[in-house]
UniProtKB/TrEMBL annotation:
Zn(2+) binds at C80, H83, C151. It is an enzyme of class 3 (hydrolase). Keywords: GTP-binding, Hydrolase, Metal-binding, Nucleotide-binding, One-carbon metabolism, Zinc. Residues 10-187 form the GTP cyclohydrolase I domain. Its EC number is 3.5.4.16. It comes from the Bacteria. Gene3D superfamilies: 1.10.286.10, 3.30.1130.10. It comes from Parvularcula dongshanensis. GO terms for molecular function: GTP binding; GTP cyclohydrolase I activity; zinc ion binding. Toroid-shaped homodecamer, composed of two pentamers of five dimers. Homopolymer. This is GTP cyclohydrolase 1.
Length: 188
């Protein structure tokens, strides 16, 4: 499908506003299609970003450091692909370096690139872990996401306080139970 123009996207928002029963021409709503599309540019900025590029700068001067590197409590702001409803939570991303490390902020940027696209939490978890594994080629990767889905809390079943936990363990995190245990101790 050809990508619609901005004007077409704004017209679609007008249709939605009329669909819910409001008047898209009233003062309070007249600029809403513009704002809505601008907000989408922000929430879905990940489509215009290359996850591999985010991890392209690495450092090899680590003085022999070979233990795990963990960035925990990275805020997740995403949207589910089923309802386009917000998913809010945290991600914990760890890897076991093999002679090179990546800038810490890049782990958070990688999370953002995929979070700012539409997907399920399981896919988001896998995408972050697999990209880190493919590009950095570390000895192991662990990613855990703990998030709340507004499609469960504010509609449908209306279950607030429910959170979804997903995890992907690759390499030594998968084969070494003690490492997995240490990872969980560090994030708990
Ligand atoms: N596995 C998975 N499911 C998700 C995620 N986000 C939303 N969902 C679920 O996607 C499902 C879609 O189910 P459908 O029956 O097609 O849609 P629905 O009628 O809106 O479902 P209800 O939410 O039960 O009202 C729901 O069960 C959601 O809870 C996610 O990240 N992972
Ligand atoms: Zn949903």
């Amino acid at each position: 499908m050809d990508r619609p123009t901005r004007e077409q996207a704004e017209a679609a928002v007008r249709t939605l506003l009329a669909y819910v029963g409001d008047d898209p021409d009233r003062e309070g709503l007249i600029d809403t299609p513009k704002r809505f599309v601008k907000a989408y540019d922000d929430w879905f900025a990940g489509y215009g970003q290359d996850p591999d590029e985010v991890l392209s700068t690495t450092f090899e001067e680590v003085e022999g450091y070979d233990d795990l590197v963990l960035l925990k409590d990275i805020r997740i702001e995403s949207h589910c692909e089923h309802h386009v409803a917000p998913i809010l939570g945290v991600a914990h991303v760890a890897y076991l370096p093999d002679h090179r490390v990546v800038g810490l902020s890049k782990l958070a940027r990688l999370v953002d690139v995929y979070a700012k696209r539409l997907q399920s939490q399981e896919i988001l978890n896998e995408q972050i872990a697999r990209t880190l594994d493919r590009v950095l080629k570390p000895r192991g990767v662990a990613v855990v996401i703990d998030a709340q889905h507004q499609c469960i809390s504010t509609r449908g079943t209306h279950k607030d306080q429910v959170s979804c936990v997903t995890r992907t363990f690759l390499g030594e995190f998968k084969t070494n139970a003690r490492l997995e245990e240490r990872f969980f101790r560090l994030i708990s």
